[in-house]
């Protein structure tokens, strides 16, 4: 099957640099973050405002006798006439616990189900409009231009705090035309006010940047922050932004989270973004940098890329997870740069074939350390590398490298009691949960025993900036 490239969502004219993201090559695994069970969307149906019920129907508890109750349901078209359907049920056998068909006639059953479904749809629609009204004033249009050329990049962003800080994608605001003249960044709010913004800092790895505008306090309308570790496929995803740039308007789409534990490469970096959120909520060029919300109206990610051959939505969009965004944004505001933690090793995944070759348990997984950087954190902590050999081969225009393990190196199996099966697990945990200077405990399999090793993380410095 032909590989479909990733596309960033910013609008870039022909004279600007092309933005093409490369599919990530690192292994995928389940999210290692532990979380509590998030509230379901049905919670909103139970707590929706009464005004939504007034639009399509009402459910009222009406006493019928000492041992029975009735739910009187008025469909939308019955409100004006006062017609209603009454369903009897006992305290032991209520409408939620017993099929309605056991209590009422088929005709009454059909009418009741239709009325209840209508109420649920109206409650969910009301919730979506409520999210729009509460959130859209926190979203902005970002237009990148200069004094000689028209806009060279257009995207979206959102207010991080009430001090004028705005979060967006780095690929939206990076100075692609700065060789011509100094770049100007214009931010437009939902109310139509425009401000010139300064670039506080950008992180090529996560594709996140922070801007700042000098505006009145009531202009900034920060959005609430969620927890991307709580996410599960099937949950609601709501994308806010400004698709297709200045020729269109602010918009909202919604769908579901269709995948987790993804890695993608930003076009600005060679280090993959971990724990990326995949969604079918419509995204198009110009949505870059806009917030991805959950059903509570909290930001769970930043819309970053779409997978498409035509640069328009094809049902697969990606967002940088908010738990990574939070770390990056705080660093950019405080330091102007975000540094990623360094262990200082190279490694290969222990496969089933390797497990058999090295006389390990059949289901043994982990990362076999194949090299240790001299004087790096791993070297100072005493982590051992395998003394196997690499062999290279080529086919056409492609080159391949094969490693033959000897089995005398450490196999990383856990970090801070989090199971590590592959490189994705290691990268996700380190990038989303640690900082340079933190001390971690790496458990390695060495000579048949599990050995805990304390390690102080180093820093990649400005390698990716």
Provide structural commentary.
- With 465 residues, this protein is α+β, with helices and mostly antiparallel strands.
- Helices cover 18% and strands 35% of the residues.
- It has helices spanning 42-47, 50-56, 106-135, 170-173, 322-335, 352-357, 377-381, 423-433; strands spanning 6-8, 20-21, 57-65, 68-75, 85-90, 139-145, 153-159, 165-169, 184-189, 194-203, 208-213, 236-241, 251-264, 273-279, 291-293, 299-307, 317-321, 341-342, 345-349, 367-372, 389-395, 398-404, 411-415, 418-419, 439-446, 449-456, 458-459.
- The strands form six sheets. Strands 12-13-14-17-16-15 form a six-stranded antiparallel β-barrel. Strands 6-7-8-11-10-9 form a six-stranded antiparallel barrel. Strands 19, 20, 23, 24, 25 and 26 form a six-stranded antiparallel β-sheet that branches.
- Strand 25 and strand 26 (449-456) form a beta hairpin.
- Helix 2 crosses helix 3.
- The two termini are 35 Å apart.
List the helices and strands and how they pair.
Elements: E1 6-8, E2 20-21, H1 42-47, H2 50-56, E3 57-65, E4 68-75, E5 85-90, H3 106-135, E6 139-145, E7 153-159, E8 165-169, H4 170-173, E9 184-189, E10 194-203, E11 208-213, E12 236-241, E13 251-264, E14 273-279, E15 291-293, E16 299-307, E17 317-321, H5 322-335, E18 341-342, E19 345-349, H6 352-357, E20 367-372, H7 377-381, E21 389-395, E22 398-404, E23 411-415, E24 418-419, H8 423-433, E25 439-446, E26 449-456, E27 458-459
Antiparallel strand pairs: 1-2, 1-16, 3-4, 4-5, 6-7, 6-9, 7-8, 8-11, 9-10, 10-11, 12-13, 12-15, 13-14, 14-17, 15-16, 16-17, 18-27, 19-20, 20-23, 21-22, 23-24, 23-25, 25-26
Helix pairs in contact: 2-3
């Amino acid at each position: 099957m032909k590989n479909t490239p990733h596309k960033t969502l910013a609008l870039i004219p022909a004279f600007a640099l092309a933005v093409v993201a490369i599919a990530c090559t690192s292994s995928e695994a389940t999210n290692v973050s532990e979380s509590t069970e998030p509230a379901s969307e049905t919670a909103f149906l139970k707590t929706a405002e009464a005004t939504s019920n007034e639009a399509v129907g009402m459910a009222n508890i009406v006493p019928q006798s000492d041992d029975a109750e009735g739910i009187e349901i008025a469909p939308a078209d019955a409100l004006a006439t006062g017609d209603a359907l009454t369903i009897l049920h006992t305290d032991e056998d209520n409408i939620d616990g017993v099929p309605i068909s056991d209590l009422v006639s088929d005709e009454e059953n059909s009418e009741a189900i239709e009325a209840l479904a209508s109420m649920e749809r109206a409650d969910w629609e009301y919730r979506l409009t409520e999210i729009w009204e509460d959130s859209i004033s926190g979203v902005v249009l970002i237009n990148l231009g200069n004094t000689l050329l028209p806009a060279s990049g257009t995207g979206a962003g959102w207010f991080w705090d009430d001090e004028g800080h705005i979060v967006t994608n780095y690929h939206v605001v990076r100075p692609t035309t700065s060789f011509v003249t100094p770049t100007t960044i214009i931010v437009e709010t939902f109310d139509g006010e425009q401000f010139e913004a300064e670039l506080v800092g950008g992180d090529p790895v996560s594709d996140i940047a922070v801007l700042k505008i000098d505006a009145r306090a009531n202009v900034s309308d920060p959005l609430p922050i969620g927890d991307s570790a709580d996410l599960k496929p099937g949950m609601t995803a709501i994308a806010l932004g400004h698709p297709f740039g200045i020729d269109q308007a602010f918009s909202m789409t919604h769908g579901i989270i269709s995948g987790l534990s993804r890695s993608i490469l930003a076009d600005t970096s060679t280090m993959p973004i971990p724990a990326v959120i995949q969604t079918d909520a419509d995204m198009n060029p110009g949505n870059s940098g806009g917030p991805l919300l959950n059903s509570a109206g909290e930001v769970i990610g930043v819309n970053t890329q779409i997978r498409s051959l035509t640069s328009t939505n094809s049902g697969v969009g990606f967002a940088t997870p908010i738990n990574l965004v939070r770390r990056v944004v705080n660093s950019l505001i405080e330091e102007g740069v975000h540094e990623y933690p360094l262990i200082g090793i190279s490694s290969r995944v222990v496969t089933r074939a390797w497990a058999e070759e090295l006389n390990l348990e059949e289901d043994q997984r982990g990362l076999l350390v194949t090299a240790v950087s001299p004087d790096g954190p791993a070297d100072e902590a005493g982590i051992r590398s395998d003394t196997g050999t690499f062999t290279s081969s080529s086919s056409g225009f492609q080159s391949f490298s094969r490693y033959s393990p000897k089995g005398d190196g450490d196999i990383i199996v856990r970090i801070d009691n989090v199971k590590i099966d592959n490189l994705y697990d290691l990268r996700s945990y380190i990038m989303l949960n640690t900082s340079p200077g933190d001390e971690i405990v790496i458990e390695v399999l060495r000579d048949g025993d599990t050995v805990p090793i304390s390690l102080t993380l180093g820093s990649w410095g400005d390698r990716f900036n």
